[in-house]
Amino acid sequence: MSNRSIVALKFVVFPACLIPLAVLVYQGFTNSLGPDPVATITHTTGFWTLYFLLISLAVTPVRRLSRRLAWLIRFRRMLGLFAFFYAMLHLTTWVWLYSNFDVHEMVHDIGKRPFITMGMLGWTCLFLLAATSTTWSIRKLGGKRWTMLHRLAYVAATAGVIHYWWIVKTGVRTPWKVTVVLAVLLLARALWWAKEAVSKKKVAVTA
Ligand code: HEM
């Protein structure tokens, strides 16, 4: 895909990523957020955090399946930043609408409620990823260290999925779909590392 087409596509993808927020705002103005508006906002922002995280993690394996899809890498940072954007909205909902900015209650919740602790772990990883997403950070940290740090995306996604499992009632299996997607992505990554390790060993033997 040419550079011009990628730039043009970015102008479509960027507003498209804002659609879930636009729908929430529309529902807010038309009083159609349902019987529990806070729950609707929390669920929507939580799900979109997870979806953007999984989509951004899928970019590399999909790109490896076909050279013709190499251009997808140009969208990874944007998709990852949208995961952080929705995570910020999700966290803000909790800080504002659930906890009413009560720092004491929030600290208590983080320590006492495992699903909140897991959510905070995921959010912290996303924060570190967003804070180091600039070209300046790559230069400062060096490619190798930056790549290592950005594996936190897998920790964030795993924490997000566990957080989801710990929210649903016992016996409810709705998080299974995102769990399967994450497992496939982790497996693809593990296979790739194994393949790389074998080819490095081969090079060392023949050298
Ligand atoms: C990687 C970060 C996170 C992801 C992917 C995530 C994902 C989700 C998802 C998918 C839900 C909806 C579950 C459902 O409807 O059954 C949810 C709900 C929720 N999340 Fe998160 N979350 C994250 C971080 C956080 C953080 C940092 C907090 C607060 C400190 C938080 C607090 C909540 C709360 C209070 C709910 C609603 C629980 C309920 O329905 O009783 N989440 N989250």
Oligomer designation: single chain
Ends distance:
37 Å
What is the alpha-carbon Rg in Å?
19 Å
Strand content: under 5%
Helix content: over 70%
| Mean of pLDDT | 95
What bound compounds does this protein have?
Answer: protoporphyrin IX containing FE
Overall morphology: globular
> In terms of per-residue confidence, which ranges show pLDDT below 50 for 5 or more consecutive residues?
none
The largest β sheet comes out as: none
The computed structural class is mainly alpha
Quantity of strands, as a count: 0
If helices are DSSP runs of H or I spanning 4 or more residues, what is the number of helices?
10
Total number of domains: 1
How do the SSEs run, as a string of H and E? Answer: HHHHHHHHHH
Structural description of this entry:
The chain has 207 residues and is mainly α. It has one domain. The chain is 82% helix and 0% strand. It has 10 helices and no strands. The protein has helices at residues 3-17, 19-29, 37-65, 73-98, 103-112, 114-131, 135-141, 143-149, 152-167, 176-206. Helix 1 runs parallel beside helix 4 (73-98). It is globular, with a radius of gyration of 19 Å. The mean pLDDT is 95. Bound molecules: protoporphyrin IX containing FE.
Fold topology:
Blueprint: H1 3-17, H2 19-29, H3 37-65, H4 73-98, H5 103-112, H6 114-131, H7 135-141, H8 143-149, H9 152-167, H10 176-206
Helix pairs in contact: 1-4, 2-3, 3-4, 3-9, 3-10, 4-6, 5-6, 6-9, 7-8, 9-10
The protein binds protoporphyrin IX containing FE.
Give short descriptive properties of this protein.
globular, 207 residues, single chain, binds protoporphyrin IX containing FE, mainly alpha, 82% helix, 0% strand
